[in-house]
Amino acid sequence: MEQRSLRVVDSNKTFFGKISSTLSKIMIPTKIGINGMVINFKRNNLLKSYEAKHKEGLDEEKKKIAEDKYQEAYTLYLEAIDKYIMDSVYKKVKLNTASDFEKEAMGNYYKITSLKENEYIEYKYRKQKYLIELDYESLKLNAKEKLLEKYKAFYIEQMDIFYKGILKNYAVKLADTPRGGENLKIKVYTSIFETLNEYVSTILPIKDNGKIDERIRDDYNKLDQFDIGELDAKDYVEKNMLLLNISRQLFTHSLPLVAAEQCYNKLLSDLRLIIVRIESERQKSEAYDLLLDLAEAYNIKTLSTKVYWEKLEEREKYKKFWEKYKNTDNPKEKEILFLKREIETIEDNENNRAILAFYKEKLISYGVMRKIKNSCRTSTKYKKIK
Fold first, then answer.
1. What's the whole-number average pLDDT of the chain?
2. Model-level pTM greater than 0.85?
3. All residues at 6 or more sequence positions from 32 whose CB lies less than 8 Å from its CB, including other chains
């Protein structure tokens, strides 16, 4: 299928945002064109084979036959969409008669094609994802409700497969990135958060008729506040924290704990830097409150479920922290525990000196630490030494 089809795809969010309003420029003419008739025919075959493979009571042999027919119908369906795009858009661009939208579509085609050699897995998923999204948007504009509902079941199942595949690929990249490849890691972190946001904003609202799982409902509802206005650095961290919290329920295997742990550490690192750079006391206080929420999500929701630890001493330190945390309901005592754990786990270097000093000042203000003068007198000549 990969060799025969799947030529146009795009992961650019801005481009996807234009699809709903401008899709008619490309897809509506298919109502009277031969390509449109072929797409409709292939789509109908796909939906029939999709329903057949999900039919209950099939034995193993019939399941295999139904699955094979579905895969063939799926391939032919994507080929039909792909052929229409190439016939309609590519030729217009080549003849210089294409609209700006169509030119952008082909521009994104070349951008995605460039992924094929070095990022084949992402390329494969995003191409299929794009073609199916394109037809889904067309159906939303033109199809009858009954057909749209039948297609939606197939659409949601495939989108879940694509997003899980893309996220799993990113998780592998994080694990494979060598030390020192920080720029590459930052790019992967950004891709993870953008992919999670895309799934939460486009797929979750149509799954189960928009009913949100109670395990993620609170975090999901909080995301609404980030849809309005321009986001600052703290807002981005908070939004990504909520997305990461949601991912622990939706993508447990595709974004495993080891990858989630790295993502939480990235957000914590960003937020520490924000706290020491902010001059406004109000904004610093808000960022600090967010840090406590993030530390709780990381330590309680993530590390408490961790089974394998590379260093046994780290596991023992965490077990002591976890026991103290479980035995207190006092918010201030919990805050002190988080601050102590931050001091214990953050590497004491030049980059972290400012945030460590901030934490220690907090503990001093709570009476947990004391500030000791950095000078004394010898007992003989009473000379003051530092």
1. 85
2. no
3. none
